[in-house]
Amino acid sequence: MAKQEDLFKNVVSHAKEYGFIFPSSEIYDGLSAVYDYAQNGVELKKNIREYWWKSMVQMHENIVGLDAAILMHPTTWKASGHVDAFNDPLIDNKDSKKRYRADVLIEDYAEKLNIKAQKEIEKAKSRFGDAFNEQEFITTNPRVVEYLSKKNEILARMAKSLDAGDLDDVKLLIEELELACPDSGSRNWTEVRQFNLMFGTKLGASADTAMDLYLRPETAQGIFVNFLNVQKTGRMKIPFGIAQTGKAFRNEIVARQFIFRMREFEQMEMQFFVKPGEEMKWYHYWKETRLKWHNSLGLGAENYRFHDHEKLAHYANAAADIEFNFPFGFKELEGIHSRTDFDLKAHEQFSGKKLQYFDTEENKNYVPYVVETSVGLDRMFLAVFSKSLQEETLEDGSTRTVLRLPSVLAPTKAAVLPLVKKDGLPEIAKEIMEELKWDFNVAYDEKDAVGRRYRRQDALGTPFCITVDHQTVEDKTVTIRHRDTMLQERVAITDLKNIIEKEVSVRNWLMKM
């Protein structure tokens, strides 16, 4: 646990030191759970967004994009259920004065049981080798059975209580499990109560006439209210999808763990409209497809897992999370939900407008069902960044900090370095940079010894360093150094574009799916 905490601290400090993420309004002591993406962070974030967009929209003929407004008519949120049901269970510790989500406290305890079970499984794997039957061991080993059974019982009871609105039983469960405040160790809890997560605002010229609005808590509703506009103008046929990326806002009870849970964040969502009765087929299709997308980035298949929901949202008949192994454990990265026809029917009811699809094959109108994929862009950033940040011991005993970002996502694809600041080398280096920047984001660096410049680029996640030396003047070749292997090779200047393109192209990475 201490090692994980140290890793997380390194992630936060590295993100600031190397210009990825700054605390917002830092000169005024910051604003809780709000962050600014710095010069390198904004490039990495943009590259993640574009990698998702290319895969989700441009590679699918039946999926189109949308950019809906953040401010929407307030009845939107009444229809969607957010006004009445967008709540989290809140609990305070009386001694530490710290506030927590009651469900997260319980889920964290359940995850500890799961970790204990996995440790038993790993020990058995090591002991029995190739002869190990994991499934049999999980169902017969008394300790594993006990850990997993208790985990499932706890989560099922919590889900049932939350569904029924029985907050007294949620508190009773916390007491029975003897859950303590993570900060103080105190078990002196308040009652559990519901807390609505939406930010309110006003629209109007004066306080007397202003309309009460909300900052959108999700981007999905902008898609639903535009369903018919997009379907008709795009002549879309079922099944089809509408995707968008954009900001959403939630007044989180506990906004901690850096950019994992923020009050202002960005989502990448796609709503896929299907025939009623076919939603489960597409639900399983998108579960599989989205996991393939994540794995295409090469962060390690062992760092992902599915978590099927015990407690379903009011709009869903099936839901699963793709969880990622963050420095603080497995947590939700992306959600895949079968939303039924709840949203379109609700907006029909509240607006008085028909939101139906005319199926020419069946010669009838119907309200489509919806399968949603929703990934947090900020969480995706944190997943990529935290898994890529590594301390490496070299053959000579020295260490280096390297940010092994998937090269397709790296903010800067190559750094051009003149060996010395004389003899015409800077001029040649700048000519190379001028040529490459038409196709890639490249940097120029002439400060410090070349070895220190290599280390700086390693820490920034730059896949290639191109060194211009005196031999370059003679034969138009340069040394290109690879970040991950530190291998250096001599190549012609004219070959640089192809070498970099082969490594960083979206096409080559997405072809891994």
Automatic annotation (TrEMBL):
One of its GO terms (molecular function) is glycine-tRNA ligase activity. Keywords: Aminoacyl-tRNA synthetase, ATP-binding, Cytoplasm, Ligase, Nucleotide-binding, Protein biosynthesis. The keyword Zinc does not apply. Gene3D superfamilies: 3.30.40.230, Anticodon-binding domain, Bira Bifunctional Protein, Domain 2. Its EC number is 6.1.1.14. It holds the Pfam family tRNA-synt_2b. InterPro entries: aa-tRNA-synt_IIb, aa-tRNA-synth_II, aa-tRNA-synth_II/BPL/LPL, Anticodon-bd, Anticodon-bd_dom_sf, Gly-tRNA_synthase/POLG2, Gly_tRNA_ligase_bac, GlyRS-like_core. The keyword Transferase does not apply. Residues 198-418 form the Aminoacyl-transfer RNA synthetases class-II family profile domain. SUPFAM superfamilies: Class II aaRS ABD-related (SSF52954), Class II aaRS and biotin synthetases (SSF55681). Substrate binds at residues 101, 218, 265-269, 372-376. It catalyses: tRNA(Gly) + glycine + ATP = glycyl-tRNA(Gly) + AMP + diphosphate. It is found in: Cytoplasm. CDD domains: GlyRS-like_core, GlyRS_anticodon. ATP binds at residues 250-252, 260-265, 332-333, 376-379. Belongs to the class-II aminoacyl-tRNA synthetase family. PANTHER family: DNA POLYMERASE SUBUNIT GAMMA-2, MITOCHONDRIAL (PTHR10745:SF8), GLYCYL-TRNA SYNTHETASE/DNA POLYMERASE SUBUNIT GAMMA-2 (PTHR10745). Homodimer. Catalyzes the attachment of glycine to tRNA(Gly). This is Glycine--tRNA ligase. It comes from Flavobacterium bernardetii.
